[in-house]
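Hi D.,

Good news: the full-assembly prediction came through. Inputs first.
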Amino acid sequence: MNLKPNHRLPLMAMGMFSLLMALFGGVQRLGWELPTLTVALPANHGSLMVGAFLGTVIGLERAVALGRLWGFFGPLSTGLGGLLLIAGVAPPLAQLLIVTGSLMLCALFVAFLRRQFAWFTVIMLVGALSWLVGNLLWLLGNSIFVVVWWWMGFLLLTIAGERMELGRMLFISKQRQRQMSAAVILSMLGIAVTLLDLDAGVRLLGVGMVAIALWLGLNDVARRTVRQQGLTRFIAVNLLAGYVWLACCGLLLLLFGADFSGLRYDAVLHSFFLGFIFSMIFGHAPVIFPAVLGRGMIYRPAFYIHVVLLHVFLTVRVVGDLTVELLSRNISGLINALTLLVFVLNTVLAIRAYHIRERSEAAPGESA
Ligand code: HEM
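Then the structure:
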């Protein structure tokens, strides 16, 4: 039995609230003087983004696809964990809730595999395991710069697996499947090596990322669909731009190796999390939100506003990071945060436009 769309709303709302609070904390970490909402926000910026926002949204989307009530326990856990992280209350309980959410996501993928074996589901399961290991390391007291690579593994493999599933790349040759498996193994090997030698591990992860970016760039249907119109082209533009950012992040990792904080760390993390992950979110949102929330949305060319803003100002931010231009880095970082608000606003307006159209189409029938 699936959870009714209206009952999924509070879960999505918890994830979105974590996103907003994480953005606030991120801007504070850039050094902008904002009022203190809670003292925990700047320190919990990364864990809120990955565990409480992305973990909840991905968990929710997968739970809807599985259609079993128990599947929603995962996003409920991560959503509640996020609220505790925001309040800065009971940090170990917050971490435990996010660990539980990642465990539930692993269970979800096992259930998918039992229903129907598919290699893209195996890749997503490995991604969920990477998130679980990262969260366990975090629960055990490791710093974010130790666990963040495991979190990246989660998102990297989730996206790679989802692209294969959504992009109808099911009929790719065995040889290409082997190439992707090799890139995934390389990335996961790099992530595992970070526990022994952080520098060598992240460089290896960088090679794996470049390989996955190349594979996706060459095999994704987006290469063809980018020549179409409207929503189809919009999705393809986002996917291809995201693969470019993934390759950039891989190259930066390969070049610089491990960093623990500071400007290069900022460049590496945000070319991945903002450039790659948010491109995927922007591209998939018009498909995923209606599926998860049971509410349609109308594609509008205005969606390109948040896309252009993201890529222009993320480029300025990364260049500012690498050339130690603090002012341009800080201003563009602030604009990155505002861009995500524009995305949320555009999405709400598109859902509203659909709702209004539905009502106006239903009205003549009602009066007849
Ligand atoms: C959109 C606006 C954003 C701003 C202004 C922002 C700002 C920052 C800053 C200033 C740092 C500290 C970097 C350093 O150590 O010098 C940071 C770290 C981090 N950010 Fe962001 N960020 C944003 C978006 C994101 C997103 C979308 C994600 C993930 C989906 C993310 C994940 C992280 C992570 C995991 C860290 C490492 C945290 C740590 O080491 O404690 N950020 N961010």
